[in-house]
Amino acid sequence: MRIDILTLFPEIALAPLSDSIIQRARGAGLVDVRGHNLRDWSEDKHHRVDDSPCGGGPGMVLQPGPLHAAIMALKKENTRVILMTPQGAPLKQARVRELSSEGHLLIVCGHYEGIDHRIVETLIDEEVSIGDYVLTNGAIAAAILCDAVIRLLPGALGDSQSAVEESFSDPDLLEAPCYTRPIDFMGIKVPDVLLSGNHAKIKAWRREKAEERTRKNRPDLSDHA
Ligand code: SAM
């Protein structure tokens, strides 16, 4: 898989992808991730890429010219062009799974007030939000999307079952609580069933606790009453 990130801050986007599991996936050649600075496509002598909003109002808007030139230069025939924006569809694990089977993602990051809407209308395939809150720029959001996608690439996780038995594998269910040694920590013991060796009982317990946690923490997900 190839991922290109177009941003004013390539170093912010790439930093979280340069350690641990994701760095190992990159090192193993599962994914080729590259950051690109939008200013490289500016024709302004000061490398300016923004201007004030038409109609007035606060802040600045990323101009269409550099964005158009950059996207056209980085886009290939089968590229999925994604804009990170709080106005996009909230990112869900099911969509992450689908995106992990794409061959090439081009992730466009906004800054200031966002990007000129003519680019959204003409060159963006999909608008993605990482949640109902507003960040200063899209580089962190892009890194989050990349992390979620890359860990699902075959071979990225040490145990491929990790991505099968986790929160949102069933879109409406969180994972059950997990424990490790010591068995007794400050007088609180690991539930007996997890030490029983009885796999059927453990599976049933995990299902019950997963539903219990979902009801408590995410009552919006579905009816686990
Ligand atoms: N003026 C925009 C609005 O009200 O919708 C917010 C712009 S935000 C300050 C600047 C950039 O950060 C956006 O263009 C986007 O790339 C990124 N961003 C901020 N919040 C985000 C979110 N929740 N999900 C994805 N990207 C986000």
Would you write up a description of this structure?
Strand 8 and strand 9 form a beta hairpin. Helix content is 31%, strand content 19%. It has 225 residues and is of the alpha/beta class. The chain is built from seven helices and nine strands. The chain has two domains: 2-150, SPOUT methyltransferase, trefoil knot domain (Alpha/beta knot, 3-Layer(aba) Sandwich); 165-222, Orthogonal Bundle (Trp Operon Repressor, Chain A), CATH 1.10.1270.20.
Q: In a nutshell, what does this entry contain?
A:
Helices cover 31% and strands 19% of the residues. It has helices at residues 10-14, 20-27, 64-74, 93-99, 117-123, 138-150, 199-217, and strands at 2-7, 32-37, 50-51, 61-62, 79-90, 104-109, 126-129, 184-185, 188-189.
Please bin the fraction of helical residues: 25-40%
Can you count the helices? 7
Order of helices and strands: EHHEEEHEHEHEHEEH
Provide the number of structural domains. Answer: 2
Query: Which term fits the overall shape?
Result: elongated
- CATH H-level superfamily title of the largest domain: SPOUT methyltransferase, trefoil knot domain
Structural class: alpha/beta
CATH topology of the largest domain: Alpha/beta knot
From the N-terminal CA to the C-terminal CA, the straight-line distance is 41 Å
The biggest sheet amounts to: 5 strands, parallel
Ligand set: S-adenosylmethionine
The CATH top-level class label of the largest domain: Alpha Beta
Tell how many strands the DSSP assignment holds: 9
Uncertain runs are none
Mean pLDDT: 97
CATH hierarchy: architecture of the largest domain? 3-Layer(aba) Sandwich
Strand order of the largest sheet: 2-1-6-5-7
What share of residues are in beta strands? 15-25%
Task: Indicate the radius of gyration in whole angstroms.
Answer: 21 Å
